[in-house]
Amino acid sequence: MNRMHSLTLAALSALLVGVSTSGLAIAWAKPISYRLPDETAKFKAAAGVEIVQNNCTACHSSDYIETQPRAQKSKKDFWQAEVTKMIKLYGAPIDDGDVGKIVDYLAANY
Known about the structure:
110 residues, Cytochrome Bc1 Complex, Chain D, domain 2, 2 domains
C-alpha cells in the first residue's frame, strides 16, 4: 500500500511547534509530499475492526498494536488502560461510545 501525504511547510512547522498557521504570512507555503512506510501488519478481521481502524490509525499503524506485550493477566484491563492512555495522555479523539468496542476488539484479537 502506497501511503502518500501532502503538507505545506507552513502546516508542517505549525505541527512541529504547535502553532496555528491562520493569520501568519508565510512565504514558503509550497506543498511537499512524503511517503509513509508500507504496512507490515493488518488488523485481524473481526467484529469491531472498522471502529479500531477509524480511531487508531489516525495516529499509528496496526504494527504498533502488534508490538504490545501479550502475557497479561487480563487482556481487557491491559487494553482498557492503553486506550485510556491514548485518550488522556495523547489526546486521541475517541468517542466514549467507541471505547468499549475498541477494548473488546483488542482484547479478543491481540
